[in-house]
Write a structure and sequence with these properties.
With 363 residues, this protein is of the alpha+beta class. The protein is built from 8 helices and 18 strands. It is globular and about 70 Å long.
Length: 363
Amino acid sequence: MNKNEFDDVDDADDLFDDSDITDSADDKTTNQKYIHFQFTADKGQSLLRIDKFLMDRIEGVSRNKIQQAADANCILVNGSPVKSNYKIKPLEHVALVMDRPRMELQIIPENIPLDIVYEDNDLIVVNKPPNFVVHPGHGNYSGTLLNAIAYHLKDMKGFDANDPSLGLVHRIDKDTSGLLLIAKNEHAKSHLAKQFLYKTIKRQYVALVWGVVEKNEGRIEGNIGRDPKNRLLMRVFPDGDQGKTAVTHYQVAERLGYVTLVNCQLETGRTHQIRVHMKYINHTLFNDARYGGDDILRGKDFAKYKQFVRNCFKECPRQCLHAQSLGFTHPTTEQEMLFNSELPSDMQTVIERWRNYLANNEI
């Protein structure tokens, strides 16, 4: 897996249990190792302890577990084991290995319906509904979009859903709906991944956010990394000393009183990027439970209004975020391709409710 494989993971994934690490150094040096995670440090990476480096990149793992892994020679830098106080340098390759494969994360074909927008010999564009996990992980070892892809392509010669050089090119969160890109072969995966790396991919999202967004358009920049106080959350580090560079552009699409409909263009693709950046500028996504958007953050203190908002929450029981458009250069034909997806019914209903509220009530 390349360094971006886990940029868009939504749910926590416990990396180790006690059986993963043994006390026998001989076993560690003679047995075959299986790569569980691997990353490449950025060109501008500052000197940072390897345990902190890995905590920023692997969700749901404690520093103590990483240190145990280092003591057991399970953390390799450029192929050689290092201790937990080793300081990572720019462009160094980091691998976390175990004596067993990640069997719990194997992708088994499952007959799950897919909304396929486009498909050819190189790639598939899928329209993902909300509440659909993209990749197997902690608590979601089956029933994911990749299980469905594995079934859809089970008869395709040479396709292995467990081969990281194939499959997902990027990810979106479980409760975010919209367009996803899947590569069917290594050439397509490499070609498309480079487009993400060099920021030539075009991605636009639609989000309903709390509050009146004053400027009609804007740019949000702030490093995003895991919140040290809550590993399930991401946060902005404005001083740039932690996390990864992240840039989001937004434009107001419609003003709806106490909420605003915005279009967001991603320049980078970090975990929860739009959700975190909009919260950072005090416009949390509507009904984003993880970041506090499921509270009534704007509006009147009237029972009728509160009930209206709660009804909206029921209509769209997730963050109001949809990956609406996806543009890229085809890896074989070099043709420019652009796909669009209609807003799902839950978001359409909530937006229409706010329009009606605005038309019939003073704000």
